[in-house]
Design goal:
There is one protein chain. This protein is of the alpha+beta class. Helices cover 20% and strands 46% of the residues. It has 1 helix and 7 strands. Strands 1, 2, 3 and 6 form a 4-stranded antiparallel sheet that branches. Strands 5-4-7 form a 3-stranded antiparallel sheet, with no helix packed on it.
Length: 133
């Protein structure tokens, strides 16, 4: 009975179209997975941090938004981002934040708070360290 099709009506055009579209979608997804695997970035994390907007006054403090990016292929954990505000050669503010996980190609955002206006001095934001998972 498994090979007997005598009792079944032939497949309709709608069934064949549905089958063809389904096969095409499965092939497209499989092709995209293979393409992503073949051309994906590889190598160690490449991390960079920088201000992502102007400083904004919030009460008695100045909020400085930043973003940290991983343009490398591998993930990084415990990414330490440090900021330093120097006015007239003296450090007037420092900050440190940790991004717990940053995969390849990912960007995270945050903010540092300073008591002095960053526009009056030199602000540096950089990645100090990271760990590989």
């Amino acid at each position: 009975m498994s090979g007997d099709r005598a009792g079944r009506p032939p497949r309709t055009a709608a069934e064949w179209w549905t089958f063809g579209i389904s096969v095409a979608l499965v092939a497209l997804v499989a092709g995209l997975i293979v393409l992503s695997w073949a051309t994906g970035a590889s190598g160690p994390p490449v991390l960079a941090a920088a201000p992502s907007g102007p400083a904004e006054r919030q009460g008695a403090m100045f909020r400085v938004p930043f973003e940290v990016r991983n343009t490398g292929g591998d993930a990084a954990t415990d990414v330490q981002v440090v900021a330093e505000l120097t006015v007239d050669g003296a450090t007037v503010g420092e900050g440190e934040q940790t991004v717990m996980f940053l995969s390849g190609g990912e960007t995270e955002r945050g903010a540092f708070l300073f008591g002095d206006d960053p526009a009056t001095g030199a602000l540096t934001i950089e990645v100090a360290s990271y760990r590989t998972p």
